Amino acid sequence: MYVIAVYDVGQKRVAKMLKLCRRYLNWIQNSVFEGEISEAKLLELKQEAMMIMDDEDDSLIIFKARQEKWLEKEIVGQERQNLDTFL
Amino acid sequence: MYVIAVYDVGQKRVAKMLKLCRRYLNWIQNSVFEGEISEAKLLELKQEAMMIMDDEDDSLIIFKARQEKWLEKEIVGQERQNLDTFL
Question: Which residues bind Mg(2+) (chains A, B) (predicted)?
Fold first, then answer.
């Protein structure tokens, strides 16, 4: 399964969410991640995210596509992804 | 065509990008939008975005799916979308 995950969390929780999402997916921009993941691993990710997130303020949106080929990605402007290897 | 658009732009350009994206798509979270859009309208959106964006610092990622049913959306935590009608 191919997913895109985008979080919107309070400043204090950004670093933890970034670290968590990077363990499961590829970072592509700001708070946006993508990657191939199994249902089981995605469940793990969601459970760990819920431990970090504030129920009332934070959100995590996950878009799932059964196959990556169903999604076409286009980047306008800077491709942040390239910086990831330096971080 | 169904798209998810996510921008990452400098603070000074956030308001303009938000306003632009809202004209074409539905706001779902922070800098994330989704919606059904034609190729022609998407081209317009990209062209207008390029006029706002700083070539060296900003980015706009667009994920395209030919049909919405190919994408399943799941929200963990707060569903920001609901606030949109009040803004």
Answer: 8
Q: Which residues of A touch B66 (CB under 8 A)?
A: 70
Domain topology for B2-68 = Alpha-Beta Plaits (3.30.70)
Q: Please state, in angstroms and rounded to a whole number, the distance separating the CA atoms of residues A63 and A15.
A: 22
Whole-number pLDDT of residue B29: 87
Architecture of domain A2-67: 2-Layer Sandwich (3.30)
Ranges in chain A, pLDDT < 70: 80-87
Average predicted confidence (pLDDT) for chain A: 89
Q: What is the ipTM of this complex?
A: 0.80
Strands A26-29 and B32-36: unpaired
Instruction: Delimit the domains of chain B by residue range.
Output: 2-68
Contact A54, A9 (CB under 8 A): yes
Q: Which residues partner with B32 through β-bridges?
A: B6, B29
Structure token digits, residue A83: 């910086």
- Averaged pLDDT in 10-residue chunks for chain B of 87 residues: 93 96 94 95 97 92 87 84 49
